[in-house]
UniProtKB/TrEMBL annotation:
It catalyses: a quaternary ammonium(out) + ATP + H2O = a quaternary ammonium(in) + ADP + phosphate + H(+). This is Quaternary amine transport ATP-binding protein. It is found in: Cell inner membrane. It is a peripheral membrane protein. The keyword ATP-binding applies. One of its GO terms (molecular function) is ATP binding. It is an enzyme of class 7 (translocase). Keywords: ATP-binding, CBS domain, Cell inner membrane, Cell membrane, Membrane, Nucleotide-binding, Repeat, Transport. Transmembrane segments: none annotated. The complex is probably composed of two ATP-binding proteins, two transmembrane proteins and a solute-binding protein.
Length: 228
């Protein structure tokens, strides 16, 4: 469904952050990108929605080269979740989820219905949380809202850049479990960046280990664990 073919990124300053990487993931799979800081995880992820345009190779979604697609159209199909949720502080939770550009054309009632459905999906009771503001929620709850927002327009692909990285270990584990439960229901194609191997093994259908801009190993968790 998502395919990288010898993809590279050379930044304008000449730095080659990603070199010649290839992989393919099927619809409904979670690919985890793992590796030390600076190895090219975020660059790789941002090339998928063209926040960072690749400079060599090809990226295909359903066999279509993403450079042939209008970036706005492309991004409508790709949700994005970042570490600190990135919620608008002056909007309620409901508006944070419902006011994304992709939902702009929707009928007010249909949109509201969708927002409430998404909040329930991520385990937040709308009756309690819809009218609150982000700072009235814990970090873990804010991340749930970030996930709800990414899912609201029903994109096929979700990019998650260390979404649980700033949470305490217990909340983090809880959200990992929630993500797996949710995934049973929504079956998204997910690219998940982390530097925590436990998290990678728990969530990944496939795990790509990056080092200095190249994939040094790409395996299922089972294969990774059964190798010396
Ligand atoms: P990671 O997500 O694994 O920490 P990044 O993809 O953010 O790594 O960065 C990979 C490398 O590319 C790093 O050395 C970083 O400094 C460099 N880099 C990132 N963005 C730019 C940029 N805009 N211009 C030049 N170098 C960059
Ligand atoms: P992050 O929170 O993703 O780690 P960074 O602090 O690495 O962000 O980067 C912040 C911004 O600076 C990004 O837009 C990134 O592309 C850019 N950047 C990162 N490293 C470099 C670099 N070596 N040269 C130029 N720009 C960079």
């Amino acid at each position: 469904m998502l395919k990288f073919e010898k993809v590279g990124k050379k930044y304008p300053n000449g730095y080659e952050a990603v070199k010649n990487i290839s992989f393919e993931i099927e619809a409904g799979e979670i690919l985890v990108l793992i590796g030390p800081s600076g190895c090219g995880k975020t660059t790789t992820m941002k090339m998928i929605n063209r926040l960072v345009p690749h400079t060599s190779g090809h990226i295909y979604i359903h066999g279509k080269d993403i450079t042939k697609e209008n970036p706005v159209t492309l991004r409508k199909n790709i949700g994005y979740v970042i570490q600190q949720a990135g919620l608008f502080p002056h909007y309620t939770i409901e508006d944070n989820v419902g006011l994304i550009p992709d939902l702009k054309g929707w009928d007010v009632n249909k949109r509201k219905e969708r927002v409430l459905e998404m909040l329930r999906l991520v385990g937040l009771d709308p009756a309690l949380y819809a009218k609150r503001y982000p700072k009235q929620l814990s970090g873990g709850q804010q991340q749930r809202v970030g996930v709800a927002r990414a899912l609201a327009a029903d994109p096929e692909i979700i990019l998650m850049d260390e979404p649980f990285g700033a949470l305490d270990p217990i909340t983090r584990e809880q959200l990992q479990d929630e993500l797996l439960r949710m995934q049973q229901e929504v079956k998204k194609t997910i690219v998940f960046v982390t530097h925590d191997m436990d998290e990678a093994l728990k969530l990944g259908d496939k795990i790509a280990i990056l080092k200095d801009g190249v994939i040094v190993q790409l395996d299922t968790p089972y294969e990774l664990l059964s190798r010396p």
